[in-house]
Write a structure and sequence with these properties.
The complex is a heterodimer of chains A (318) and B (299).
Chain A (H helix, E strand, L loop, with lengths): L8 H20 L4 H20 L3 H8 L7 H8 L1 E5 L12 E8 L2 E8 L5 H6 L7 H16 L4 E7 L6 H5 L2 H14 L4 E10 H5 L6 E5 L3 E3 L3 H9 L5 H8 L3 H6 L5 E3 L10 H19 L4 H13 L4 E2 L2
Parallel strand pairs in A: 3-4, 4-5, 5-6, 5-7, 6-8
Antiparallel strand pairs in A: 1-2, 2-3
Helix pairs in contact in A: 1-2, 4-13, 6-8, 10-11
Chain B lengths: L1 H4 L12 H7 L17 E3 L6 E3 H6 L15 H8 L6 E3 L4 E2 L8 H12 L5 E8 L2 E8 L10 H17 L3 E7 L7 H20 L4 E10 L12 E4 L5 E2 L3 H8 L10 H6 L5 E2 L2 H14 L8
Parallel strand pairs in B: 6-7, 7-8, 8-9, 8-10, 9-11
Antiparallel strand pairs in B: 1-2, 3-5, 5-6
Helix pairs in contact in B: 6-7
The chains are: A alpha/beta (318), B alpha/beta (299).
Pfam family, one (chain B): Zn_ribbon_ACC
Main location (chain B): cytoplasm
Catalytic activity (chain B): N(6)-carboxybiotinyl-L-lysyl-[protein] + acetyl-CoA = N(6)-biotinyl-L-lysyl-[protein] + malonyl-CoA
């Protein structure tokens, strides 16, 4: 299969062998059921061995898998009546981020996220989900609109970072991210965020100030990409694998640091092996959180959000 | 004068001399403080090449008298040239970094940085007065770990913001940072969230915040408190940007213009209110404070 990752090769080859044996058995009429059963057992044990203890680098590869569900897959898979809304009202419409209004479990929500493409053409149009200032300003406009109507906000995070280009800097990418952080921290409506794939640096954080923040099991969240860290630390971006370990970017680490509120299970082998099941898991987590958050008075909610982020950090003699 | 109309009750301060400030910041006034200005009688400007008497350069607030090049100054020098008579009461002076990721060689590097800079962390916060107006002041220092933003800087700045709210004093932050403290991983990223959240409260309370961007203000600091002032000011020629020059050049495969990510470039693009030469900075800040009746909205 084209969507398999390098480290899955032994398992894929075993599964291929089982398939071959099965079809040979059918064609020849010979009974290989015992052999097939044994091989299947072996495949099961290999799979649990492979997937139960993924390294941070393996998870990074899964987080970046081109067939993982994208923001639009999540929105369309879990919501009804989705209306995509466009533009920042100042410069343009950045397709690296999609946003709109929809109903989730009967509740109107403002829903948005970084959008990667399925093929090269779409990825060029969407800049591989790397947003420019107008993308973040679109999300801010729609968050303020959500606040006006006390509509909850749901953000999907999946970007390697904000787009590093001349236009980004000219139009103030730093200011655009900063403004989102400030406004989200004080937004008078519930915010739920899910890191679905790559949570890369400030470009990810700009959609990440929530009352609840979750990560998918094989997503990553970091201050810098493993490649970037490797280039800075060892002057060699080829050491990304080592950097992924050192930087502690996988969901289990980030959760143990208290930076996210929960980790959402993925199907065995990763989200891309069963998009529907993944989307169902994410939906369940969001809907449960949403029902809880809607019970909390707004001023309490905003103060709790502040305290949550205020407590993040480690220092001595303070 | 306007100032007299809004005159506040005289604040009591521990009055510190320059020497005291220096000691508080963990070094003496005579210690070599700036790598860009080597000790010696003359200093050669790295911009125009003109040699200037080092003493004269110091007197000129470390600005080249020939071409106006602004040398970087450390936190102590900045405090001395900004606050009235060097009176400064420091907050959280002893706070130091931990190693939450168990990052290879981080504790040893911290120690080296402390020794090299004479500082405990990349930001010094406290209070004093400017033109008689009390302010909460934070000054980042790029001589410590490139001014990188870690848990300590994030916490000190957040506490400074909370104190500004509690005392209803305006806030001034001089930024100088190479970006996130990579060695603290996700905690470093979260300092952007934390400081911005505190600034949201400050703005809500009607308290003035002036961000002064100095060389270099980059990465996570640019994408948080450096850009969130009621007024965003910068020193001439300061490097200010989010993404690094090399990363952008690699991404777009073209060479960037020389003035890219300078204070002047940001001013032209509408990201700054003013570019203010160092010699005018204190007076400009005092005027802004005066125009805001001291810097906090009347209750």
């Amino acid at each position: 299969m084209a969507n398999d990752l390098m480290f899955e090769k032994p398992l894929v080859e075993l599964q291929k062998k089982i398939e071959e044996l099965r079809s040979f058995s059918e064609q020849s009429g010979l009974d290989f059921s015992e052999e097939i059963r044994k091989l299947e057992e072996k495949a099961d044990s290999l799979a649990s061995h492979l997937y139960d203890d993924l390294s941070p680098w393996q998870r990074t590869q899964m987080a970046r898998h081109s067939e993982r569900p994208t923001t639009l897959d999540y929105i369309k898979g879990m919501c009804t009546d989705f209306l995509e809304l466009h533009g920042d009202r100042a410069f343009g419409d950045d397709q690296a981020i999609v946003a709109g209004i929809a109903k989730l479990d009967g509740i109107p929500v403002t829903i948005m996220g970084h959008q990667k493409g399925r093929d090269t053409k779409e990825n060029i149009a969407r800049r591989w989900g790397m947003a420019q200032p107008e993308g973040y300003r679109k999300t801010l406009r729609l968050m303020k609109q959500a606040e006006k109507f006390r509509r909850p906000v749901i953000c999907f995070i999946d970007t390697s970072g904000a787009y590093p280009g001349i236009a980004s800097e000219e139009r103030g990418i730093g200011e655009a991210i900063a403004r989102n952080l400030l406004e989200m921290a004080a937004l008078k409506t519930p915010i739920i965020c899910v890191v679905t794939g790559e949570g890369g640096s400030g470009g990810a954080l700009a959609l990440g100030i929530g009352d609840r923040v979750y990560m998918l099991e094989n997503s990553i969240y970091g201050v810098i990409s493993p490649e970037g860290a490797a280039a800075l630390l060892w002057k060699d971006s080829g050491q990304a694998q080592r950097a992924a370990d050192t930087m502690k970017i996988s969901a289990d680490h980030i959760h143990s640091f208290g930076v996210v509120d929960g980790v959402i299970k993925e199907p065995e082998g990763g989200a891309h092996k069963d998009n529907e099941a993944t989307i169902a898991n994410v939906r369940e987590t969001i809907v449960t959180a949403l029902r809880e958050l809607l019970e909390i008075p707004t001023d309490v909610l905003v103060e709790q959000r502040y305290q949550k982020f205020k407590n993040m950090g480690h220092y001595a003699n303070g | 004068m306007l100032k007299d109309l809004f005159h506040k009750k005289k604040q009591r301060y521990a009055t510190l001399t320059s020497q005291d400030v220096a000691e508080r910041l963990g070094r003496t006034r005579t210690a070599p403080v700036e790598v860009s200005v080597p000790e010696g009688l003359m200093t050669k400007c790295k911009h125009c090449g003109e040699a200037t008497f080092t003493k004269e350069l110091e007197k000129n607030l470390k600005v080249c008298p020939n071409c106006g090049y602004h040398y970087t100054v450390n936190a102590m020098e900045r405090i001395l040239m900004t606050l009235d008579e060097g009176r400064f009461f420091e907050y959280d002076a002893d706070m130091t970094a931990m190693d939450p990721l168990g990052f290879p060689e981080y504790p040893a590097k911290l120690e080296r940085e402390m020794k090299k800079s004479g500082l405990k962390e990349a930001v010094v916060t406290g209070e004093g007065t400017i033109g008689g107006f009390p302010v909460v002041l934070g000054v980042m220092d790029s001589t410590f770990f490139m001014g990188s933003l870690g848990s300590v800087a994030g916490e000190k700045i957040t506490r400074a913001i909370e104190r500004a709210i509690a005392k209803r004093y305006p806030l001034i932050l001089f930024t100088a940072s190479g970006g996130a403290r990579m060695q603290e991983g996700i905690y470093s990223l979260m300092q952007m969230a934390k400081t911005s959240a505190a600034l949201a409260k400050l703005h809500e309370e009607g308290i003035l915040y002036i961000a002064v961007n100095t060389y270099p203000t980059t990465g996570g600091v640019t994408a948080s408190f450096a850009m969130l002032g009621d007024l965003n000011i910068a020193e001439p020629g300061a490097l200010i940007g989010f993404a690094g020059r090399r990363i952008i050049e690699q991404t777009i495969r073209q060479k960037l213009p020389d003035d890219f990510q300078t204070a002047e470039f940001l001013l032209k693009n509408g990201m700054l209110d003013m570019v203010v030469p160092r010699k005018d900075m204190k007076q400009t800040l005092a005027t802004v404070l005066e125009l805001h009746g001291g810097g906090a909205r009347g209750e």
